[in-house]
Amino acid sequence: MDGLEKVLIVEDELHARTGLTELVASWGYRAEGAADGVEGLEKAVEWGPSIVVTDLKMPRMDGMELLHKIGMLPQRIAVVMLTAQGSIESAVEAMRMGAYDYIPKPVDPVRLKTILHNASDQREADVEMEVTRRQVRSAGRLGPLVGNSPQMMEVFSLIERVAPSNVSVLVTGESGTGKELVARALHELSARRLKPFVAVNCAAIPETLIESEIFGHEKGAFTGAQERRAGCFELAEEGTLLLDEIGEMPAATQAKLLRVLEDRKLRRLGSKVETPVDVRVVAATNKDPEQAVASGELRGDLYYRLNVFNIRMPTLREHLMDVSAIAEKLIDDMNERHNCTVAGLKDALIRRLEDYQWPGNVRELRNTIERAVILAGNGMLGIEHLPPNFGEPGSVPSSAGGRAPMTATGGSADAAAAASREVQRYLDEQNTVRVEVGTTVDEAERQLILKTLSSTHNNKTKAAEILGISAKTLQNKLKEYSNSSND
């Protein structure tokens, strides 16, 4: 801990101000107090603290106005808001305005110490972030994200602004747009970057297990619970937790999640005690969250708690100018994964890729590039490495994802095209459901679901998207088939 780190306590109640100042000083900080927002602003300008801990309601100038004025100062100051019971909405609004974090009264010393420690670490992250900003301007990249379009630059800007804070973020956008990459970028650009990043798909966990997976359980909490198990929150301690497809989470679990977000304490299944947690939560959904709230799939209070900051990922068809840059990045990834030496994209292929509308977004582009890299092996990718009839009216987008059984390692365009046709015949065979005359509708449906699940390598989320049903419906169908086989 840097003993010269300055912390300013702004609190109109004398005893509370004196107690907090002495407590913070005992942790190795240089701490001073101010009696209200006016005095606090004066000391912020003259003394230059790196952190300000301020009460929300004060005479002359309240905490919200102080936060706004501190945000206008040239130096970067982390503001932590003290809130009384019942003013959580004000705290959330403060975080929207740029507060680093908030802590309810009476102040929990352990939590305050953790917040100050993280805010101090953020100063180091700020230096790295400025380097990253320069890289973004010159190369169009931010962590795992790629793009030079205005749409992606807006996403980069939002990530840069919110990453240093502990505020919850809701990432929205169609499937395949890269919502998890946004969460990873937020993590990598925060003071939590050296701590765990944990991602959990709420739609992929059976309803009976999701609460245990997220919050953990004690030994004997339910049948089969033979030992204590930490949930995703505890696994992500001091790091970042991504809750993907949050709208698929059961209502009872949503209520418990809301409690954890507000109190920052959780209770494992079967436990009688609460465990403090320090986790930054990022939620993602491919649905319109307001429609999900209206339909009852997503609790309104949870939505407003998660939606402190919203980042919408554009569809790929909205920023087609980034297709070639993303494809080049994917080629580098696939060369390493498949031990290939593809050098880049031919101009004709770039034009074809930019003319396509990409209903599967970046995920579909990734599958297309992976397949092409495997087919080519080396040299430049051309149109001959695309799936047959790619981009033509009435053609079906490929979802092979590079699962071809053979590769071409160069040679003429005719040889590459022949190899492409051979691979496609194999893929068509693998992804075809044959239904005999007399087969019942239920049996045909079962075959279609199981074949689709097999083609996605048991990825239930992707299978549900292909089938056009919800992940919950797919889970129910699979449970029904399992029960039938056991009868």
What is this entry, summarized?
The chain is of the alpha/beta class and 487 residues long. The chain has helices at 14-26, 37-47, 63-70, 88-96, 109-139, 150-162, 179-188, 210-215, 232-235, 251-263, 289-295, 300-306, 323-338, 347-355, 361-376, 413-430, 441-455, 460-467, 471-486; strands spanning 6-10, 30-34, 51-55, 78-83, 101-104, 141-142, 145-146, 169-172, 197-201, 240-244, 265-266, 275-276, 280-285, 309-312, 341-345, 378-381. It has 19 helices and 16 strands.
Give structural notes:
With 487 residues, the protein is α/β, with parallel strands linked by helices. It has four domains: 120 residues, Rossmann fold (3-Layer(aba) Sandwich); 175 residues, P-loop containing nucleotide triphosphate hydrolases (Rossmann fold); 114 residues, Helicase, Ruva Protein, domain 3 (Orthogonal Bundle); 46 residues, Homeodomain-like (Arc Repressor Mutant, subunit A, Orthogonal Bundle). Helices cover 47% and strands 14% of the residues. It contains 19 helices and 16 strands. The strands form five sheets. It has a five-stranded parallel sheet with strand order 2-1-3-4-5, sandwiched between helices. A five-stranded parallel sheet has the order 9-10-13-8-14. β1, α1 and β2 form a beta-alpha-beta unit. It is globular, with a radius of gyration of 26 Å. About 7% of the residues have low confidence. Keywords: ATP-binding, DNA-binding, Nucleotide-binding, Phosphoprotein, Transcription, Transcription regulation. One of its GO terms (biological process) is regulation of DNA-templated transcription. This is Acetoacetate metabolism regulatory protein AtoC.
